[in-house]
């Protein structure tokens, strides 16, 4: 909530009140968009989990269609406007590499651990984002943020511990390996988010999405030709395989299209805090859609993280 205006500004009845109201609207818009992207990220997790259940292991291929859509839609707008690039292309190349590998690693983790664990453990990106924005973007944080980081790290330890020692093997064939992949992928997501925040404030959303889509598609295509050709040939392309692929791509496209706006309004830290509610949706999906038992450590951790955010 915005602080109350000083008496002079209230009596003025003009600029100060308008600015305060505009700021409140901007913050509320950022929060609403944050919850929208939270639902989208839950949708991508559900799609990846469904593909993993069907034995489909093609993480780079899942992301390729999203990058192609970004390149076509936003690249077309960029070409129509005939605007030169405001940032050197190699910055977008670096971002593309980080983003593709982050998606690859996190989607790969669904082969080894549960949807719930992936959605909970990806909150490791929050302390990583705070550290990176503090170092590189000179963002200042109060004591409450660092207390939140401590809670986050403690929760991560609990979730990993519960996955290692749980008797519920529905979590996946190798929960510890899956958990470690998520943690590493979350670090890359943090690097990607902070880089995007920097670039979108230096250039614009259209250029960022167009170039990320272009380089992401090229890098994904190369990686697929090396790592996933056999897997793609072995997939039976029925409705059970095609629909999760398309659902993942559409959710990712909407997610990527919305994220730059959230970053510009609220920054990378608020974006990652907003995504915490996806953990709650993941727990509900596992209980009601998959009819699985959730470890007792997952529920209090999820509730506490959502409330504290």
Automatic annotation (TrEMBL):
This is Solute carrier family 35 member F1. Keywords: Membrane, Transmembrane, Transmembrane helix, Transport. Belongs to the SLC35F solute transporter family. The keyword rRNA-binding does not apply. It is found in: Membrane. Pfam families: SLC35F (PF06027). It comes from the Eukaryota. InterPro entries: EmrE-like, SLC35_F1/F2/F6, SLC35F_Transporter. It is a multi-pass membrane protein. Its main location: membrane. GO terms for cellular component: membrane. The keyword Repeat does not apply. The chain crosses the membrane at residues 27-44, 64-80, 89-106, 118-137, 146-166, 208-227, 239-256, 262-284. SUPFAM superfamilies: Multidrug resistance efflux transporter EmrE (SSF103481). GO terms for molecular function: transmembrane transporter activity.
